[in-house]
Give the backbone structure.
Amino acid sequence: MKKLIQKTGSLLMALLVLFSTMSFTVDKHFCGSILVDQAVFSKAESCGMEHAGDMTGENGCKDQKVSVEGQKDLKISFNDLDLHQQVFLASFTYTFVELFEEVPQQAIPFSDYSPPLLVYDIHLLDETFLI
């Protein structure tokens, strides 16, 4: 169980680093106000109307690029943190690791013995109470 949690945590952290450092560009092509094509990692295809606008004097086609830059600096040192952050990080790590430690099963000493006979309270059965 502990190995499975460690492997899952490692995979999630690797994916987090991968997606935080990944950069991509979304290229959009508009004809007027209508979105004709949208592409990620490549150039958007045009509608072929760029040259038709030159004859009338107005060109309604435009390209738009949206770039998302990934994180460039990933070097974080434990010594760069102040004392309170170091104490919190160390105590959180210690308690989190100890959370998943298995507790050994303990032997039940009275598992081979039968339960005692039930003793009835005669006053309650007969409904006679002392006042």
Observations:
- The beta strands are 24-31, 34-40, 61-68.
